[in-house]
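## retry 2 of 3
previous attempt timed out at serialization; input unchanged, resubmitting
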Amino acid sequence: MNLRCHKLAATGLTKAGASQQTNAAFTLADLLALLGLFVLLALVLTPALARTRVSDQGFQCLHNYRQLMAAMLMYTHDYHDLFPPNPDTGTFTPGYDWCAGNAGIGGSQEFNSDILLDPTRSLLVPYIGKNASLFHCPADPRTGISSAPSTLGQVVPSARTCSMNSAVGTNPESPGGQLPVNGPWLTGVYGGNSLNGPWFTYARTTSILKPTPSRLFVLLDENPNSINDGCLGVSMVGNWFVDCPGALHNLGCSFAFADGHCEHKRWQDWRTGVWPNPQGYGRDYDPVNPDVIWVQERTSALK
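## retry succeeded, writing output
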Protein backbone atom coordinates (compact mmCIF):
# COMPACT_ATOMS: atom_id res chain seq x y z
CA MET A 1 0.00 0.00 0.00
CA ASN A 2 1.53 3.30 -0.98
CA LEU A 3 1.75 6.36 1.23
CA ARG A 4 -1.49 7.91 -0.12
CA CYS A 5 -3.44 4.76 0.65
CA HIS A 6 -2.01 4.73 4.18
CA LYS A 7 -3.20 8.30 4.64
CA LEU A 8 -6.68 7.46 3.40
CA ALA A 9 -6.84 4.46 5.65
CA ALA A 10 -5.65 6.52 8.58
CA THR A 11 -8.42 9.02 8.09
CA GLY A 12 -11.02 6.32 7.49
CA LEU A 13 -11.65 7.38 3.93
CA THR A 14 -12.02 5.02 1.03
CA LYS A 15 -11.52 6.05 -2.56
CA ALA A 16 -15.30 6.35 -2.93
CA GLY A 17 -15.50 8.46 0.21
CA ALA A 18 -12.70 10.69 -0.98
CA SER A 19 -14.50 11.11 -4.28
CA GLN A 20 -17.76 12.00 -2.51
CA GLN A 21 -15.96 14.54 -0.33
CA THR A 22 -14.35 16.15 -3.38
CA ASN A 23 -17.66 16.31 -5.25
CA ALA A 24 -19.42 17.91 -2.24
CA ALA A 25 -16.99 20.84 -2.15
CA PHE A 26 -18.44 24.30 -3.01
CA THR A 27 -16.37 25.44 -5.98
CA LEU A 28 -15.85 28.87 -7.50
CA ALA A 29 -17.89 27.73 -10.49
CA ASP A 30 -20.81 26.92 -8.17
CA LEU A 31 -20.56 30.35 -6.57
CA LEU A 32 -20.53 32.09 -9.94
CA ALA A 33 -23.54 30.06 -11.07
CA LEU A 34 -25.44 31.01 -7.91
CA LEU A 35 -24.58 34.67 -8.32
CA GLY A 36 -25.75 34.49 -11.91
CA LEU A 37 -29.05 33.04 -10.72
CA PHE A 38 -29.50 35.88 -8.23
CA VAL A 39 -28.82 38.44 -10.96
CA LEU A 40 -31.33 36.75 -13.26
CA LEU A 41 -33.97 36.75 -10.50
CA ALA A 42 -33.32 40.42 -9.82
CA LEU A 43 -33.76 41.28 -13.51
CA VAL A 44 -37.00 39.32 -13.63
CA LEU A 45 -38.48 40.52 -10.32
CA THR A 46 -37.49 44.21 -10.30
CA PRO A 47 -39.93 45.30 -13.05
CA ALA A 48 -42.66 43.24 -11.42
CA LEU A 49 -42.02 44.87 -8.04
CA ALA A 50 -41.96 48.31 -9.69
CA ARG A 51 -45.31 47.60 -11.34
CA THR A 52 -46.68 46.48 -7.99
CA ARG A 53 -45.55 49.74 -6.38
CA VAL A 54 -47.16 51.78 -9.18
CA SER A 55 -50.33 49.74 -8.83
CA ASP A 56 -50.40 50.26 -5.05
CA GLN A 57 -49.93 54.01 -5.49
CA GLY A 58 -52.73 54.12 -8.05
CA PHE A 59 -55.04 52.21 -5.70
CA GLN A 60 -54.24 54.58 -2.83
CA CYS A 61 -54.76 57.62 -5.06
CA LEU A 62 -58.21 56.41 -6.13
CA HIS A 63 -59.03 55.68 -2.49
CA ASN A 64 -58.11 59.29 -1.62
CA TYR A 65 -60.36 60.63 -4.37
CA ARG A 66 -63.28 58.48 -3.30
CA GLN A 67 -63.04 60.05 0.14
CA LEU A 68 -62.58 63.58 -1.21
CA MET A 69 -65.53 63.22 -3.58
CA ALA A 70 -67.68 61.79 -0.80
CA ALA A 71 -66.72 64.84 1.27
CA MET A 72 -67.60 67.12 -1.66
CA LEU A 73 -71.05 65.56 -1.98
CA MET A 74 -71.64 65.75 1.78
CA TYR A 75 -70.80 69.44 1.53
CA THR A 76 -73.47 69.89 -1.19
CA HIS A 77 -76.02 68.10 1.01
CA ASP A 78 -75.35 70.58 3.82
CA TYR A 79 -75.32 73.67 1.58
CA HIS A 80 -78.56 73.39 -0.38
CA ASP A 81 -76.99 71.40 -3.21
CA LEU A 82 -74.29 74.04 -3.80
CA PHE A 83 -70.70 73.13 -4.56
CA PRO A 84 -68.06 74.98 -2.54
CA PRO A 85 -66.53 78.15 -4.01
CA ASN A 86 -63.90 77.56 -6.67
CA PRO A 87 -62.55 80.88 -7.94
CA ASP A 88 -59.55 80.94 -10.23
CA THR A 89 -57.88 83.65 -8.17
CA GLY A 90 -55.68 81.96 -5.56
CA THR A 91 -57.48 83.91 -2.81
CA PHE A 92 -56.76 83.34 0.87
CA THR A 93 -59.93 85.06 2.04
CA PRO A 94 -61.65 82.76 4.57
CA GLY A 95 -64.65 81.00 3.08
CA TYR A 96 -63.79 82.09 -0.48
CA ASP A 97 -62.13 78.94 -1.83
CA TRP A 98 -62.72 75.21 -1.52
CA CYS A 99 -58.97 74.78 -1.05
CA ALA A 100 -56.67 77.77 -0.67
CA GLY A 101 -52.93 77.95 -1.15
CA ASN A 102 -50.34 77.83 -3.93
CA ALA A 103 -49.18 74.21 -3.95
CA GLY A 104 -46.96 74.46 -7.03
CA ILE A 105 -43.21 74.07 -7.25
CA GLY A 106 -41.78 76.95 -5.25
CA GLY A 107 -45.26 77.98 -4.10
CA SER A 108 -45.71 79.31 -0.58
CA GLN A 109 -47.87 76.34 0.44
CA GLU A 110 -46.04 73.62 -1.49
CA PHE A 111 -45.02 71.99 1.80
CA ASN A 112 -47.67 73.42 4.12
CA SER A 113 -50.36 70.89 4.91
CA ASP A 114 -51.71 72.95 7.82
CA ILE A 115 -53.66 75.18 5.45
CA LEU A 116 -55.47 72.09 4.19
CA LEU A 117 -56.77 71.52 7.72
CA ASP A 118 -57.94 75.10 8.27
CA PRO A 119 -61.75 74.82 7.99
CA THR A 120 -62.05 78.46 6.93
CA ARG A 121 -59.71 78.01 3.95
CA SER A 122 -60.22 74.33 3.16
CA LEU A 123 -63.97 73.86 3.19
CA LEU A 124 -64.02 70.06 3.03
CA VAL A 125 -62.21 69.74 6.39
CA PRO A 126 -65.36 68.89 8.41
CA TYR A 127 -65.93 65.90 6.11
CA ILE A 128 -62.44 64.37 5.83
CA GLY A 129 -61.54 63.66 9.43
CA LYS A 130 -58.65 66.14 9.33
CA ASN A 131 -56.75 63.85 6.97
CA ALA A 132 -54.61 66.21 4.90
CA SER A 133 -52.92 63.32 3.08
CA LEU A 134 -56.08 62.92 0.96
CA PHE A 135 -55.00 65.96 -1.06
CA HIS A 136 -51.62 64.41 -1.91
CA CYS A 137 -51.06 61.86 -4.68
CA PRO A 138 -48.77 59.11 -3.34
CA ALA A 139 -46.92 59.10 -6.68
CA ASP A 140 -46.05 62.80 -6.38
CA PRO A 141 -42.25 62.67 -5.83
CA ARG A 142 -41.83 66.15 -4.35
CA THR A 143 -40.38 66.49 -0.87
CA GLY A 144 -39.08 69.57 0.94
CA ILE A 145 -38.77 71.51 4.16
CA SER A 146 -42.13 72.08 5.80
CA SER A 147 -43.40 75.62 6.26
CA ALA A 148 -46.38 74.41 8.31
CA PRO A 149 -46.23 75.41 11.98
CA SER A 150 -47.10 71.87 13.09
CA THR A 151 -44.12 70.31 11.23
CA LEU A 152 -41.89 73.34 10.77
CA GLY A 153 -38.40 72.47 9.49
CA GLN A 154 -39.13 68.78 8.88
CA VAL A 155 -38.74 67.10 5.49
CA VAL A 156 -42.26 66.36 4.27
CA PRO A 157 -44.02 65.38 1.02
CA SER A 158 -45.77 68.01 -1.06
CA ALA A 159 -49.04 69.09 0.53
CA ARG A 160 -51.40 68.91 -2.45
CA THR A 161 -51.58 67.37 -5.92
CA CYS A 162 -55.32 67.63 -6.57
CA SER A 163 -57.27 70.44 -8.23
CA MET A 164 -60.91 71.15 -9.07
CA ASN A 165 -62.53 71.57 -12.49
CA SER A 166 -62.73 75.33 -13.19
CA ALA A 167 -66.27 74.86 -14.56
CA VAL A 168 -67.56 73.47 -11.25
CA GLY A 169 -68.24 75.41 -8.07
CA THR A 170 -69.75 78.63 -6.82
CA ASN A 171 -68.58 82.21 -7.19
CA PRO A 172 -67.90 83.53 -3.67
CA GLU A 173 -68.42 87.13 -4.81
CA SER A 174 -71.88 86.50 -6.29
CA PRO A 175 -75.02 87.33 -4.27
CA GLY A 176 -75.11 84.90 -1.39
CA GLY A 177 -72.28 82.99 -3.06
CA GLN A 178 -74.90 80.94 -4.89
CA LEU A 179 -74.15 81.59 -8.54
CA PRO A 180 -71.83 79.37 -10.58
CA VAL A 181 -68.21 80.19 -11.29
CA ASN A 182 -67.39 81.93 -14.55
CA GLY A 183 -64.99 79.25 -15.77
CA PRO A 184 -62.79 82.04 -17.13
CA TRP A 185 -60.50 79.86 -19.27
CA LEU A 186 -63.22 77.84 -21.05
CA THR A 187 -63.07 79.97 -24.20
CA GLY A 188 -59.28 79.73 -24.32
CA VAL A 189 -58.92 83.41 -23.40
CA TYR A 190 -58.99 84.34 -19.72
CA GLY A 191 -62.26 86.06 -18.86
CA GLY A 192 -63.95 85.01 -22.08
CA ASN A 193 -66.57 82.84 -20.35
CA SER A 194 -69.10 83.68 -17.66
CA LEU A 195 -72.02 82.04 -15.91
CA ASN A 196 -74.05 83.01 -19.00
CA GLY A 197 -71.82 81.01 -21.31
CA PRO A 198 -71.04 80.18 -23.98
CA TRP A 199 -69.91 77.16 -21.94
CA PHE A 200 -71.84 75.66 -19.04
CA THR A 201 -70.61 76.15 -15.48
CA TYR A 202 -72.13 74.28 -12.55
CA ALA A 203 -73.03 75.63 -9.12
CA ARG A 204 -75.30 72.73 -8.07
CA THR A 205 -75.29 69.00 -8.61
CA THR A 206 -78.81 69.28 -10.05
CA SER A 207 -77.54 71.71 -12.71
CA ILE A 208 -75.29 69.04 -14.22
CA LEU A 209 -77.20 67.84 -17.24
CA LYS A 210 -74.69 68.19 -20.06
CA PRO A 211 -72.41 66.33 -19.81
CA THR A 212 -74.05 63.94 -17.38
CA PRO A 213 -72.77 63.66 -13.78
CA SER A 214 -70.98 60.41 -14.62
CA ARG A 215 -69.03 62.22 -17.35
CA LEU A 216 -68.27 65.52 -15.62
CA PHE A 217 -65.04 65.45 -13.63
CA VAL A 218 -64.82 67.45 -10.42
CA LEU A 219 -61.36 66.59 -9.05
CA LEU A 220 -58.14 65.29 -10.58
CA ASP A 221 -54.38 65.03 -10.12
CA GLU A 222 -52.61 68.05 -11.59
CA ASN A 223 -49.11 67.98 -13.05
CA PRO A 224 -46.67 69.20 -10.34
CA ASN A 225 -45.17 71.63 -12.90
CA SER A 226 -48.62 73.09 -13.59
CA ILE A 227 -50.35 73.18 -10.23
CA ASN A 228 -50.75 76.45 -8.32
CA ASP A 229 -54.14 77.28 -6.81
CA GLY A 230 -56.90 74.71 -6.37
CA CYS A 231 -58.54 75.39 -9.75
CA LEU A 232 -57.62 73.58 -12.98
CA GLY A 233 -58.26 75.78 -16.00
CA VAL A 234 -59.37 74.03 -19.18
CA SER A 235 -59.82 75.54 -22.63
CA MET A 236 -62.72 74.06 -24.58
CA VAL A 237 -61.32 75.70 -27.72
CA GLY A 238 -58.28 74.38 -29.57
CA ASN A 239 -56.10 71.45 -28.64
CA TRP A 240 -53.90 72.53 -25.72
CA PHE A 241 -53.81 72.43 -21.93
CA VAL A 242 -54.16 75.63 -19.92
CA ASP A 243 -53.38 73.72 -16.72
CA CYS A 244 -52.15 70.18 -17.23
CA PRO A 245 -53.58 67.00 -15.69
CA GLY A 246 -51.10 64.73 -13.97
CA ALA A 247 -49.39 61.70 -15.47
CA LEU A 248 -47.69 60.30 -12.37
CA HIS A 249 -49.26 56.84 -12.54
CA ASN A 250 -47.35 55.33 -15.44
CA LEU A 251 -48.61 58.10 -17.77
CA GLY A 252 -52.01 58.08 -16.08
CA CYS A 253 -54.16 60.29 -13.88
CA SER A 254 -56.87 59.84 -11.23
CA PHE A 255 -60.25 61.54 -11.62
CA ALA A 256 -63.33 61.97 -9.41
CA PHE A 257 -66.66 62.57 -11.15
CA ALA A 258 -69.83 64.39 -10.13
CA ASP A 259 -71.79 61.17 -9.58
CA GLY A 260 -69.21 60.12 -6.96
CA HIS A 261 -67.32 57.50 -8.95
CA CYS A 262 -63.56 57.66 -9.48
CA GLU A 263 -61.41 56.23 -12.23
CA HIS A 264 -57.87 56.06 -13.49
CA LYS A 265 -57.21 57.37 -17.01
CA ARG A 266 -54.17 56.13 -18.91
CA TRP A 267 -53.12 58.78 -21.42
CA GLN A 268 -52.65 57.88 -25.09
CA ASP A 269 -50.15 60.62 -25.93
CA TRP A 270 -46.75 60.90 -24.23
CA ARG A 271 -46.89 64.70 -24.62
CA THR A 272 -49.61 64.83 -21.94
CA GLY A 273 -46.92 63.93 -19.42
CA VAL A 274 -44.81 66.96 -20.42
CA TRP A 275 -45.86 70.46 -19.45
CA PRO A 276 -45.83 73.07 -20.86
CA ASN A 277 -46.62 71.78 -24.33
CA PRO A 278 -43.27 71.07 -26.05
CA GLN A 279 -44.55 73.08 -29.02
CA GLY A 280 -45.08 76.15 -26.83
CA TYR A 281 -47.59 77.13 -24.14
CA GLY A 282 -50.91 78.20 -25.62
CA ARG A 283 -50.23 76.53 -28.95
CA ASP A 284 -52.24 73.60 -30.27
CA TYR A 285 -50.61 70.21 -30.32
CA ASP A 286 -49.54 69.12 -33.78
CA PRO A 287 -50.55 66.42 -34.45
CA VAL A 288 -53.73 66.55 -32.36
CA ASN A 289 -53.44 65.20 -28.81
CA PRO A 290 -56.47 62.93 -28.15
CA ASP A 291 -56.04 63.33 -24.40
CA VAL A 292 -57.00 67.02 -24.64
CA ILE A 293 -60.25 66.03 -26.35
CA TRP A 294 -60.95 63.43 -23.64
CA VAL A 295 -60.56 66.06 -20.89
CA GLN A 296 -62.60 68.67 -22.77
CA GLU A 297 -65.51 66.25 -23.17
CA ARG A 298 -65.56 65.80 -19.38
CA THR A 299 -65.12 69.46 -18.43
CA SER A 300 -68.16 71.29 -19.84
CA ALA A 301 -70.46 71.61 -22.86
CA LEU A 302 -71.86 74.41 -25.02
CA LYS A 303 -75.10 75.96 -23.80
